[in-house]
Write a structure and sequence with these properties.
The chain is of the alpha+beta class. It has helices at about 5-10, 15-20, 25-35, 35-40, 50-55, 65-75, 90-95, 110-125, 155-160, 175-185, 190-200, 205-215, 225-240, 245-255, and strands at about 80-85, 105-110, 125-130, 135, 140-145, 145, 150, 160-165, 170. It folds into three domains: about 5-45, no CATH class; about 65-175, Beta Polymerase, domain 2, CATH 3.30.460.40; about 185-260, no CATH class. The protein is globular, with a radius of gyration of 20 Å. The N and C termini lie far apart (about 55 Å).
Amino acid sequence: MSPLACCLLDPSSSRSLKERLLILSASEIFFYCTFASDAWSIMPPDFELDVSDYDRILRKGFTSEEVVAGLKELGSLLREPAEALVIGEAPLVLRGWKKVCNQIELVFTEDSALESFIDALQQAEYEETLYMRYKKYLTFDLYLKSFSEYIVSQQMLDRAFPTELGRLKADIASPEDIILLNSSSLRDSDYMDIRLLLNKIKPDWDVIVSELDRQVNQLDACDYSAIMLLATVNDLRRRKYRVPDHIPGEIVRTIQRIPESFAEP
């Protein structure tokens, strides 16, 4: 039995189930609650951590005010205008669906824009601690043109919420694209963010599948991305989240189509 299950089953504890969960570290929560079947098996069927609980177990992160201030500072240092898609957990914080984030992930569509932003980071005395990860009082993870299995499409940029911060145009990813991109991630926190998002809004699942189809059959994204989305959707449905019945079948059909790059002329 996992340590989490032992903690939850401890008969000597006077704490409630939720109180006992909240004293564990974030990594223990994410690992065992996502992957340990014995932990989930002892929880009530309707058990959910709400947004405030989730933020309490996270280590201190960056608020929306801190994120905006940091991006404005860097936007003022850019030598030329730059555009980036804001993905990951930062859009949830900027839209008020989550209190804090631990890093800001930006995908640039142009080499020159990425180079200009890195130059601004260096001017602001950020340190590159890992490849394309810069830290000072904020943490930035930078990408060029793609994230995980997905390429940033024009449709993703069109769906995003544009915000001008100095010379930086920060396109805050739509809920649909956050779900799609996060589904391809192996980080437990990204899956938890999908669930948090579904507790706040009702995304258009047809838009998600349409973008998946574009990625796999027009932009040559790996079929793995569709498999990961299917696995995410199946798990969400098992947990009684409202995902339309036709969505799993539509995801499978995107894999079965012949990509345009392999079609006969």
